[in-house]
């Protein structure tokens, strides 16, 4: 179910918005429009929808319009055109009261610089949203207390926020948002101001919390590692435009543009790429009780492979057969490949990461079988070369020139 | 020749003529405020007031100012200017109170509304640079002689810092805090009272302090239109060339100024230290 739907949303900063909109329709770029009208195109025709319970990350370089887009969702900034639809209600049409209600009950926000009230204690900050809703003091403090426990701020209730470390302050920020029990959490670079270690810890805690809460989260970051770790899906923005939306793996394996690949190159792919995306799904296999010894040898000959995965007729993975062993049992006069099957081999599942498969490389000359978790049927194999490419991070496909190409260019 | 003076005179006359009932009402209200404050200050025996003020000074600042208060106020009493000092104090406190009552909302308005801000600013400049004596003329025309026109001139002269520092304080509230507050669905009222004013408070209190000090600086001038108090003592010293009398009045004003300044300043400091 789509929780939040953004339709053709555009945001311009500047005076000649009408003219800039027309130019935008004509397909002019951000730079051209700025030159002609002085308007900044902060967000350009953004359309996407976010599912209930989804962790949606918006990523992009500084100035790409992430914060602007996020602020259009709760109308801290009024979008120039387009609509934001929350649970079938068009937020862009709401009056002040309606908007207030959405902000109080349905969307709460966490900020990069925390935005806490320095004249109030931790618990008063956490209860602030409830106070704005005019909920009686006793009730709101109780609620605040329970959220404080949830985010690990016990014992800090009566401290002034200014005396807390960054990580603790952001816990207050998060608790303040959660105290409202919103359906949607908007987080603008919530962890960007924190030290790497604290940041990692907060990310992990947010993931744990999300497993319990199942909120719909829109999270902004300029860090792809963070996006990949947190996001169910990632939208990548450039110059106000969304250039790609997809799961972390989609983005890593099929970057839509050079811009996206330039991000992707910097990522530690080992822990993200899975067997499922690397595998070759129609491998040549020796089918036990069907191919027999002659059939197996023929397959080896035509494919040029000396090792084949062996499967049962209904595709259950049985092990590997080696040319040497098959020839040997043939000489012994066996009919089936049964005695040639080596079953003591490691297997991967579709979601096994490259990092986890690394130890398998040690054993030479073999593909890694990928089997279904439940049925144990063979669904594909991963070639060792793919594994090696992923681990060394060298991927000549995306723009970089291979050294051999270079040598060829220079010499031949 | 351009006779701006003529126009202003006509305008003031027109005001006096057409708004007489209004000015009368204002006069009654202001007079009763000043008189009640004066009554409160004069009703208890002098030592009670001295002890109370000294206690407040000790609470807010410490021993030094407390001792100064004890000594200073006792000296005033000893010189025989207790009644005049209390009259002056009543006039200053009432005027400052009215100036704040008008000035702080004006300051809020100027901070919230760009157009209002643009219009109020030159008016404040005018009010502050115009020689304070000039206010005496319309004051007398509107209210006759006495404490009320004195308070009127004092209010006009001392209001600008209250307006200015309120506006400044509100403008200085960090944008990200305002944004966070709005994101949680605060109404403009809630934003103002729960966030902006509390955060601007140290600056606003600095404005309060300045307003009181400006009001004090009007003591002698307002005595020219028979507002009474210590100003009258100093004025007598000047007009009758009684140097001793002039200085005695002057010393009493200075003592009052130091006590008021330190005590009101402490409020601003304490709040900003807390925040
Ligand atoms: N109030 C504003 N007035 C004019 N231009 C603005 C305003 N706010 C943002 N912009 C412009 O809009 C564009 C998008 O800015 P935005 O802050 O949304 O980017 P961002 O992706 O959040 O960047 P960062 O990572 O630095 O936070 C930028 O070109 C910025 O200069
Ligand atoms: Mg930003």
From TrEMBL, chain A:
Coiled coil: none annotated. It is an enzyme of class 3 (hydrolase). GO terms for molecular function: ATP binding; ATP hydrolysis activity. Residues 28-264 form the ABC transporter domain. It comes from the Bacteria. GO terms for biological process: amino acid transport; glycine betaine transport; response to osmotic stress. The keyword Nucleotide-binding applies. One of its GO terms (cellular component) is membrane. CDD domains: ABC_Pro_Gly_Betaine, CBS_pair_SF. PROSITE patterns: ABC_TRANSPORTER_1, ABC_TRANSPORTER_2. Its EC number is 3.6.3.32. InterPro entries: AAA+_ATPase, ABC_osmolyte_uptake_ATP-bind, ABC_transporter-like_ATP-bd, ABC_transporter-like_CS, CBS_dom, CBS_dom_sf, Gly-betaine_transp_ATP-bd, P-loop_NTPase. The keyword Transmembrane helix does not apply. Keywords: Amino-acid transport, ATP-binding, Hydrolase, Nucleotide-binding, Transport. It holds the Pfam family CBS. Belongs to the ABC transporter superfamily. This is Glycine betaine ABC transport system, ATP-binding protein OpuAA. It comes from Arcticibacter svalbardensis MN12-7.
From TrEMBL, chain B:
InterPro entries: MetI-like, MetI-like_sf. Keywords: Cell membrane, Membrane, Transmembrane, Transmembrane helix, Transport. The chain crosses the membrane at residues 39-58, 65-83, 89-111, 132-157, 212-231, 243-260. Coiled coil: none annotated. Residues 85-264 form the ABC transmembrane type-1 domain. It is a multi-pass membrane protein. It is found in: Cell membrane. The keyword Flavoprotein does not apply. Belongs to the binding-protein-dependent transport system permease family. This is Glycine betaine ABC transport system, permease protein OpuAB. It comes from Arcticibacter svalbardensis MN12-7.
């Amino acid at each position: 179910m789509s929780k939040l739907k953004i339709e053709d949303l555009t945001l311009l900063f500047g005076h000649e918005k009408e003219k800039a909109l027309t130019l935008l329709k004509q397909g002019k770029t951000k730079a051209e429009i700025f030159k002609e009208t002085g308007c900044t195109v902060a967000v350009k025709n953004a359309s996407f929808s976010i599912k209930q319970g989804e962790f949606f990350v918006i990523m992009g370089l500084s100035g790409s319009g992430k914060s602007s887009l996020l602020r259009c969702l709760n109308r801290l900034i009024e979008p120039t055109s387009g609509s934001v639809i929350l649970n079938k209600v068009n937020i862009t049409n709401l009056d002040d009261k309606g908007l207030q209600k959405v902000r109080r009950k349905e969307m709460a926000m966490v900020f990069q610089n925390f935005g806490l009230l320095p004249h109030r204690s931790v618990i008063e900050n956490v209860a602030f949203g409830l106070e704005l809703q005019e909920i009686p003091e006793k009730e709101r403090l109780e609620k605040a207390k329970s959220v404080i426990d949830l985010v690990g701020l016990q014992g800090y209730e009566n401290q002034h926020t200014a005396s807390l470390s960054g990580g603790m302050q952001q816990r207050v920020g998060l608790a303040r948002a959660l105290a409202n029990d919103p359906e949607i959490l908007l987080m603008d670079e919530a962890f960007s101001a924190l030290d790497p270690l604290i940041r990692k810890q907060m990310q992990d805690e947010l993931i744990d919390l999300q497993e319990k809460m199942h909120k719909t989260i829109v999270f902004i970051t300029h860090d792809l590692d963070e996006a990949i770790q947190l996001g169910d899906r990632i939208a990548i923005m450039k110059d106000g435009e969304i250039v790609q939306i997809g799961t972390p793996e989609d983005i890593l394996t099929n970057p839509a543009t050079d811009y996206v690949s330039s991000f992707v190159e910097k990522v530690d792919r080992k822990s993200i790429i899975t067997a499922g995306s690397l595998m070759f799904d129609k491998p040549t296999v020796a089918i036990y009780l069907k191919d027999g010894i002659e059939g197996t040898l023929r397959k080896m000959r035509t494919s040029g492979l000396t090792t084949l995965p062996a499967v049962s007729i209904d595709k259950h993975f049985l092990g590997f057969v080696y040319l040497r062993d098959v020839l040997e049992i043939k000489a012994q006069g066996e009919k089936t490949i049964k005695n040639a099957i080596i079953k003591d081999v490691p297997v991967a599942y579709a979601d096994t990461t490259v990092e986890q498969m690394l130890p398998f490389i040690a054993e030479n000359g073999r593909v890694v079988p990928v089997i279904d978790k439940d049925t144990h049927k063979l669904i594909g194999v991963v070639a060792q070369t793919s594994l090696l490419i992923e681990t060394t991070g060298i991927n000549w496909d995306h723009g970089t020139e291979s050294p051999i190409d270079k040598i060829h260019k220079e010499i031949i | 020749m351009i006779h701006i003076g003529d126009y202003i005179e006509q305008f003031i006359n027109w005001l006096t003529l057409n708004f007489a009932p209004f000015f009368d009402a204002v006069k009654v209200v202001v007079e009763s405020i000043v008189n009640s404050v004066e009554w409160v200050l004069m009703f208890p025996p002098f030592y009670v007031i001295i002890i109370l003020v000294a206690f407040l000074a000790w609470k807010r600042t410490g021993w030094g100012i407390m001792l100064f208060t004890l000594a200073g106020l006792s000296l005033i009493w000893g010189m025989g200017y207790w009644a005049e000092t209390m009259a002056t104090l009543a006039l200053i406190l009432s005027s400052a109170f009215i100036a704040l009552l008008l000035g702080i909302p004006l300051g809020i308005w100027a901070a919230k509304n760009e157009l209002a801000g643009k219009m109020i600013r030159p008016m404040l400049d005018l009010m502050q640079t115009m020689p304070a004596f000039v206010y005496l003329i319309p004051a007398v025309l509107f209210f006759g002689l006495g404490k009320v026109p004195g308070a009127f001139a004092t209010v006009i002269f001392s209001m600008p810092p209250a307006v200015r520092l309120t506006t400044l304080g509100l403008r200085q509230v960090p944008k990200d805090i305002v944004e966070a507050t709005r994101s949680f669905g605060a109404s403009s009222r809630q934003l103002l009272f729960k966030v902006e004013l509390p955060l601007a408070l140290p600056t606003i209190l600095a404005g309060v302090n300045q307003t009181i000090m400006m009001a004090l600086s009007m003591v002698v001038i307002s005595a020219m239109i028979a507002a009474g108090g210590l100003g009258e003592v100093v004025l007598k010293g000047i007009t009758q060339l009684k140097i001793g009398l002039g200085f005695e009045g002057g010393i009493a004003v200075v003592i009052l100024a130091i006590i008021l300044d330190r005590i009101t300043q402490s409020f601003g400091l304490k709040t900003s230290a807390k925040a």
